């Protein structure tokens, strides 16, 4: 194999692949990148759960393929001058990387040993890349850090009646974002690991339309130059529709930034020994926040729009801060029933994003 590639283009591609490559593994091949040159040039990496294949522009002088250690080749390319680089394979899986009077010789591995994901041709649906990144940002923080039989450490992707819905929950709160997409033929559900979902945002950036394809236990995301394959989590996902509250009698409309800043101030003490932020809603629009921690107290009063009964309730401030951080509208709707039931937080004008949060037990 002998190929010529621009340094900046190659460095950017290798940087993407670093997030996929297994850095500590008993299988040396998983710490390597597969370089293929046949009609076009592709670089590929996998950890057996996630695979990324990137197309790179360059000139093929001789077809072939080789596996090179991902971190080492990235360091080599990064330190090269901003000129075209040559990759040329030699006997016993060695590869020479050169530019001008600079030359590196790097040991490689047999490309036949590299695990490859099977190709999928049938598209399930397509979605705008920037929209999918936005959806992931709004729900992925809600996953559990602990593995569970109900896959709370993953994100549910669901297509139904022309809509794509992303759902995540850790058992104390739930985030849901839905949007119309093209090409949905039949209802389907997939649960993706959080690492894979994060890689979708990192790999595709602001790319245009993505084609999503499904095969057995894999979901493929294909863009113009990138193909990301993610192995699905086994098992089910909670029946989230049963926990979405409806008919909540008490409704507040609050300026998002004002609410966010108040909660950040409350969080100075609210994290101490599990203390939450106590909230008091009054029919006259008076809204009070209060925290009593072992090292200090916080109190603040705000004027809001409120329809409902007098209500005192307590929440984990961090849970509310995370949701408000990913919302975009100026004002939010906060809908509640009582101090023991789940509350609903959403943007004032849009129902595309829903955030359900359980209150904390409040001892009077």
Task: Write a short abstract of this structure.
The chain has helices spanning 7-18, 70-78, 129-139, 194-204, 256-270, 317-326; strands at residues 2-6, 32-38, 40-46, 50-56, 58-62, 64-69, 84-90, 94-99, 102-109, 123-128, 154-160, 163-169, 173-180, 188-193, 209-215, 218-222, 226-231, 250-255, 277-281, 286-293, 296-303, 305-307, 311-315, 331-336, 343-347, 353-357.
CATH top level of the largest domain is Alpha Beta
Please compute the radius of gyration using only Cα atoms.
25 Å
According to CATH, the fold-level topology of the largest domain is DNA Polymerase III, Chain A, domain 2
Find the count of extended strands (DSSP E, 2+ residues).
Answer: 26
Helix content: 10-25%
Number of H/I helices = 6
The CATH homologous superfamily name of the largest domain equals: DNA Polymerase III, subunit A, domain 2
Strand order of the largest sheet: 5-1-7-8-9-6-2-3-4-17-16-15-10
What structural category do the secondary elements indicate? alpha+beta
């Amino acid at each position: 194999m002998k190929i010529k590639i621009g340094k900046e283009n190659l460095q950017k591609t290798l940087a993407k692949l670093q997030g996929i490559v297994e850095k500590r593994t008993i299988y040396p091949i998983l710490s390597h990148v597969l370089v293929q040159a046949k009609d076009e040039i592709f670089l590929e990496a996998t950890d057996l759960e996630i695979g990324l294949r990137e197309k790179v522009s360059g000139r093929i002088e001789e077809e072939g393929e080789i596996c090179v250690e991902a971190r080492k080749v990235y360091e080599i390319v990064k330190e090269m001058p901003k000129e075209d680089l040559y990759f040329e394979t030699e006997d016993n899986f060695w590869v020479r990387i050169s530019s001008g009077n600079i030359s590196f010789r790097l040991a490689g591995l047999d490309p036949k040993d590299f695990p490859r994901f099977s190709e999928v041709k049938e598209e399930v649906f397509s979605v705008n890349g920037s929209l999918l990144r936005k959806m992931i940002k709004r729900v992925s923080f809600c996953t559990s850090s602990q593995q569970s039989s109900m896959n709370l450490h993953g994100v549910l992707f669901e297509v139904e009646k022309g809509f794509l819905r992303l759902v995540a929950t850790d058992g104390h709160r739930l985030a849901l974002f839905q949007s119309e997409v093209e090409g949905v033929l039949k209802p389907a559900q997939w649960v993706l690991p959080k690492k894979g979902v994060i890689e979708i945002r990192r790999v595709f950036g602001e790319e245009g339309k993505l084609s999503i394809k499904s095969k057995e236990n894999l979901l493929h995301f294909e863009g113009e130059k990138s193909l990301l394959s993610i192995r699905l989590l086994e098992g089910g996902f909670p029946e989230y529709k049963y926990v979405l509250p409806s008919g909540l009698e008490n409704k507040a409309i609050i300026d998002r930034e004002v609410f966010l800043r108040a909660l950040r101030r409350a969080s100075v003490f609210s994290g101490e020994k599990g203390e939450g932020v106590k909230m008091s809603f009054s029919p006259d629009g008076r809204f009070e926040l209060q925290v009593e921690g072992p090292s200090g107290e916080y109190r603040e009063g705000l004027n809001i729009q409120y329809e409902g009964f007098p209500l005192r309730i307590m929440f984990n401030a961090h849970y509310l801060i995370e949701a408000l951080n990913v919302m975009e509208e100026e004002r939010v709707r906060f809908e509640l029933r009582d101090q023991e039931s789940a509350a609903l937080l959403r943007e004032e004008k849009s129902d595309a994003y829903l955030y359900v949060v359980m209150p904390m037990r409040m001892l009077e």
